Amino acid sequence: MKKYYIGVSILNCYEVDAKNQEEAEEIVRNYSHKELLEDSDFNVNYIDEIKEEGNGHEVTIPVK
Q1: 44 within 8 A of 6, measured Cβ to Cβ
Q2: 25-34: per-residue pLDDT in tens?
């Protein structure tokens, strides 16, 4: 069986009522994992096969 590194990105946007940017950031940072991931856009960006011998990655397969 082979091993892989999978690179993902998760993008979401929130509308927050706050007194300033710092408070808005704090509000979002305090969201639960469920709140952060709800309605998010999830993408697989790359898949690299892990090379068992030596250093580094062996193969990069871009995902569209």
Answers
A1: yes
A2: 999 999 999 9
What is residue 51's predicted lDDT score, i.e. its pLDDT? 85
Tokens 């690179």, residue located = 7
Residue 9, beta-bridge partner list: 43
Entry pTM:
0.63
- Spatial neighbors of 16 by CB under 8 A, at least 6 apart, are 24, 27, 28
Q: Tally the residues of the chain.
A: 64
Spatial distance between the Cα atoms of 54 and 59, rounded to a whole number of angstroms: 13
List the chain domain ranges. 4-62
Say if CB 36 and CB 11 are below 8 A apart: no
How far is the C-alpha of 35 from the C-alpha of 27, rounded, in Å? 11
